[in-house]
């Protein structure tokens, strides 16, 4: 029996390594745990409520782990203060196990509900179209971010000026621009 167990251990380790290499990384997992916990991310309460409960439970389970890891996190915090004193955040270092368990709890409890909702509804329904206000805000954000990068002057009239047809003018010239 022990020979069988000793042969199975490397296979389990390899499978665990393959499974971990298939994950999207920390940033993707954190973003996903945020998405399934927030109601504004296009998920229903069927997903967000269990994910939030899992996150809170995970955080509470992680508090004793944070206390047990205090010697290690204290050392990490000291090293962070020496390397970058302005960027050192003791709260995120000392409560790292709690934050980790918070994310793990949200994913462990919320992901099955998210998969169920995706298979039953979101995969079949198209994306929710943005409202006029959301579309306008998005376009203004794109204008603000992208247009200053181009050294051009817009040729359309500004919103605070009346169009030439309404003022009775037939000139196509804008003030300060030479005619063509």
Write up this protein:
The protein is mainly α and 180 residues long. The chain has a domain at 25-119. 67% of the residues lie in helices and 0% in strands. It has eight helices and no strands. The longest helix has 27 residues, at 96-122. It is extended.
Write the layout of secondary structure elements.
Blueprint: H1 2-21, H2 26-37, H3 45-68, H4 70-83, H5 90-94, H6 96-122, H7 132-146, H8 164-167
Helix pairs in contact: 2-3, 2-6, 3-6
Characterize the quaternary organization of these chains: single chain
List unreliable stretches of 5+ residues.
Answer: none
Overall pLDDT metric: 78
C-alpha end-to-end distance: 91 Å
Please give the number of β-strands: 0
Strand content: under 5%
Can you tell me the overall shape?
Answer: extended
Helical/strand content category: mainly alpha
Number of helices: 8
The Rg value, from CA coordinates, equals: 27 Å
What order do the SSEs take from the amino end to the carboxyl end, as H and E? HHHHHHHH
> Could you give a short account of the major beta sheet?
none
The amount of helix comes to 55-70%
Salient structural properties:
180 residues, 67% helix, mainly alpha
């Amino acid at each position: 029996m022990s020979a069988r167990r000793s042969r199975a251990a490397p296979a389990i380790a390899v499978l665990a390594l393959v499974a971990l290499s298939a994950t999207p990384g920390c940033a993707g997992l954190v973003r996903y745990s945020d998405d399934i916990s927030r109601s504004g991310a296009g998920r229903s309460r069927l997903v967000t409520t269990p994910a939030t409960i899992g996150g809170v439970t995970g955080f509470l389970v992680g508090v004793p782990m944070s206390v047990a890891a205090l010697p290690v996190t204290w050392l990490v915090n000291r090293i962070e203060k020496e390397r970058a004193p302005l960027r050192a955040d003791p709260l995120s270092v000392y409560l790292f196990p709690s934050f980790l368990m918070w994310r793990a709890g949200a994913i462990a409890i919320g992901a099955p509900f998210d998969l169920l909702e995706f298979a039953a509804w979101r995969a079949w329904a198209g994306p929710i179209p943005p409202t006029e206000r959301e579309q306008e805000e998005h376009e203004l954000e794109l204008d603000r971010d992208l247009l200053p990068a181009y050294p051009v002057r817009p040729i359309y009239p500004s919103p605070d000026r009346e169009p030439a047809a309404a003022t009775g003018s037939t000139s196509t010239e804008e003030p300060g621009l030479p005619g063509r």
